[in-house]
Write a structure and sequence with these properties.
about 100 residues; 3 helices; elongated
């Protein structure tokens, strides 16, 4: 397997890698996004949140673009029940910006 950087966007922290397998003549483009700053900002918002759930609009999460696109591709963004389950899943806690269940 041969891997090379295909593209890099310093603004979004996204890097695309081109993977080529000469045995099968297949290739894959992988996208990685640096999310440390976003996760830290989410932790601060989560830990500093005061208040309940009154009102109509609440910011409950902040997710990186590559995760957003994956959720869209899987149809999760268009299904409130699936999105709610994804947001409440402990595996996705680093994207949450407030405590409680959605």
């Amino acid at each position: 397997m041969h891997t090379r950087i295909f593209d890099r966007d310093p603004i979004s922290g996204t890097t695309e890698f081109f993977h080529y397998d000469p045995k099968t003549d297949d290739f894959t483009i992988e996208t990685r996004q640096e999310c440390d700053d976003l996760v830290e900002a989410n932790k601060l918002a989560f830990n500093g949140h005061e208040g309940g759930w009154k009102g109509d609009m609440h910011r409950v999460a902040s997710i990186p673009m590559n995760v957003y696109l994956e959720l869209r591709q899987k149809g999760i963004l268009d299904d409130q029940k699936k999105l709610r389950a994804w947001l409440n899943d402990p595996d996705n806690r680093y994207f949450r910006t407030r405590p409680g269940r959605v």
